[in-house]
Amino acid sequence: MKTIFIAASIMIAGMWVAVVDVYAAGVDHTLFASLLSSHVKDGVVDYQGFKADEAILDQYLDALAAVEPSPLSADDQFAFYVNAYNAWTIKLILSRYPDIRSIKDLGSLFSSPWKKTIARIDGDLLTLDQIEHDILRKRFKDPRVHFAVNCASKSCPPLQGEPFEASHLNDQLNQAAKAFINTPRFNRLDGNTLWVSKIFDWFPEDFDGDVIGYFIEFADVPMREQLEKNKGRIKVKYLDYDWSLNGS
User: In the chain, at which residue ranges do the beta strands (DSSP E only) sit?
Assistant: First the structure.
């Protein structure tokens, strides 16, 4: 694995942040942590703030490009690719910001924004689709990835205000899953109808074809008790997906 020494003092949101670190045993996400804490509040993304700090985002993306992922632990790899996906999605939005209302504006009838080769990783150029589907979903087989990667849209599970870290990855993924499943604008139980995000319709195999069972695992009381009591009578329906930008 490559070792990169960084010694710098940078300004983020009007504050100087000292960065002195070594990329060795894992991947340092300090730059991304500072950007997220400054420009993401309750899932709402301040793209104007990110635009002002785009040079710092570029510095973080350069650092990711210099990392060799394969020697990392499984949790470090998972966190690395999730953070890379989210950071490159922000970079993609900034390529047209502020003249953009949806990430879909960056595609066309014949091309998808998720199929643009933009992400510089391990000496290659990857698409967001490759990171999500060919690496994260295929390699790690953890459905909680759907609550970690962010597609810059209002119906997408919110972008977290901190990067994912190997040291407490499981807790972060559980928190993201619980927060999404228990937020009524994303999912809700109405009588015997469970209204859920289209994510559960697009990727049923990731949830073993048992959406209700997955909700029982992460739902809060009283939703969990109602689902357990009436599981055989619950019908699953899917909410419309709002692709408008998740900015303020």
Answer: 4-12, 15-23, 40-41, 44-45, 119-121, 124-126, 188-190, 193-196, 235-238
SS3 10: strand
* 58 found inside a domain: yes
8 A C-beta contact, residue 4 and residue 129:
no
How many structural domains compose the chain? 2
Kindly report the CA angle at 167 between 161 and 168, in degrees rounded to 5? Answer: 55
- DSSP at 109: S
pLDDT (tens digit, 9 = 90+) per residue, 151-207?
999 999 999 999 999 999 999 999 999 999 999 999 999 999 999 999 999 999 999
Name the one residue in this structure whose structure tokens are 């996906």: 85
> 192 and 157 share a domain?
no
CA 199 from chain centre, in angstroms, equals: 13
With contact defined as beta carbons under 8 Å apart, do 59 and 34 qualify?
no
Last residue of a domain, one of 136, 152, 180: 180
Q: Centre a 10 Å sphere on the Cβ of residue 65 and count the other Cβ atoms it contains.
A: 15
Asked whether the beta carbons of 36 and 162 are under 8 A apart, the reply is yes
CA 103, 105, 106, 107 dihedral sign is positive
- Of 45, 98, 102, 86, nearest to 241 by C-alpha is 102
Q: Is the pLDDT of residue 89 over 90?
A: yes
Structural domain of 33: 4-180
Check whether residue 103 and residue 131 sit in a common domain.
Answer: yes
Summarised one tens digit per residue, pLDDT across range 168-179 is 999 999 999 999
20 pLDDT above the threshold of 70: no
